[in-house]
Amino acid sequence: MLTDLTIAQASEGLRKKEFSAVELTKAHTDAVETLNGRINAYITVTSDLALEAAKKADAQLVSGDAPALTGIPLGIKDLFCTNGVRTTAASKIIGNFVPPYESTVTAKLLENGAIFLGKTNLDEFAMGSANLTSAFGGVENPWHRKGDPSVMVPGGSSGGSAAAVAAHIAMGATGTDTGGSIRQPAAYCGIVGLKPTYGRCSRWGTIAFASSLDQAGPMTRTVEDAAIMLTAMAGHDPKDSTCADIAVPDYRAACGRSLKGLRVGIPAEYRAPGMSEEILAVWQKGIDLLREAGCEIVDVSLPHTKYGLATYYIIAPAECSSNLARYDGVRFGERAEGATSLDDLYEKTRHNGFGEEVRRRILMGTYVLSAGYYDAYYLKAQKVRTLIQRDFTHAFEKVDVLLTPTAPTAAFARDEKPEDPVQMYLNDIFTVPASMAGQPAMSVPVALDSKGLPLGLQLIGKHFDEETIIAVGSALEKAAGFTARPDLRAGVSA
Length: 494
What we know:
This is Glutamyl-tRNA(Gln) amidotransferase subunit A. By secondary structure, the chain is an alpha/beta fold. The protein contains 15 helices and 11 strands.
């Protein structure tokens, strides 16, 4: 089936004229029509626009001057502004927003010939670890436990993108990662998720959650595909002052590179209490596979890792409360009816427009930024963040890359969602430190657990050294031989 091809395979097939871009896109729009009603991976489906774009892609392929992603159907997280196509951030408050401009990342993908199938679902304003906070309903993970029909969460916030790629209703998708929102859903859905270095991809035109942490990245079924997408997405943008003016290498060329003599660090602090034995076993399997590939395994310490989650949940809500202040029904956002005063308008608009989790984080963030608490919480968190960054700097003096678990468990069922939000936040315990330090990191699927759910390992690299984590990820992927896929017919994983 055409939907089973990787981006690399499809690109080659298009150039060899084995099938057309229209045929490839039609196969995906048909699959979206069949499966999206159940999985809810897309908020807005743009099949007609995709097929029109596919016709242009075929003409470009005939001319012989076609960029790498020409004719490749992708899903776009509904946080990236897309010109003329509704962009909601999975929130009621901007549920009818149609941008008159294109985000830099999606503009780069379009310049590279990509075709957009639609806008993928997410946790509201990217706030969540299970894709349960969307105003447009939760996303269903295509994977299930053996013999158990329970609906599993796909992870968050980029759960719609992860589910679309895992269910083969997109060849790849964009995600954004603030504290693990690309890597954790990638691990839960058995795909590859790559968070580049902070500043590698432009944030312009991407609806902000926490500006010092948000970073766009690719979600794909293979490391090679992630490399192809990142090459297209990355690059300097004068419209974003945090976007680095550093040349973008050909990331795909790093796949298959020899790992002989490469030093892989194993951080002691990632052996967290309560971790499952299966996660520890998969981590050990990854260590053994990389040792066999010629890597030197080195024990390292990241002593401030234990403060990462607490620090993140001060800084991210603080930035969120500032960024989301603009949605007040006056400047931006759906205005509430029946307000009797300006204060009443603000209260009604924001209460009706924002979901519970977003309101919780705005309140937390406003509190830590308030007079009398700014120094005690926000300023102290920024100092701890510096220490977390310093830990990585010291570790990378000894090693080239770090290997850790991506998440402390496999995906859990919707009805197993913890009532305590702090317990939910623990899903990001292994991904948050790299986000705090701005390091590039990638999750690679390695094995299935005893219940048939995918488990991923995380590679963390030096700033702007995505090439090394792609090289190591490619070798890990090949050695692990992960070929399992969800069985979408039976509703029970194969």
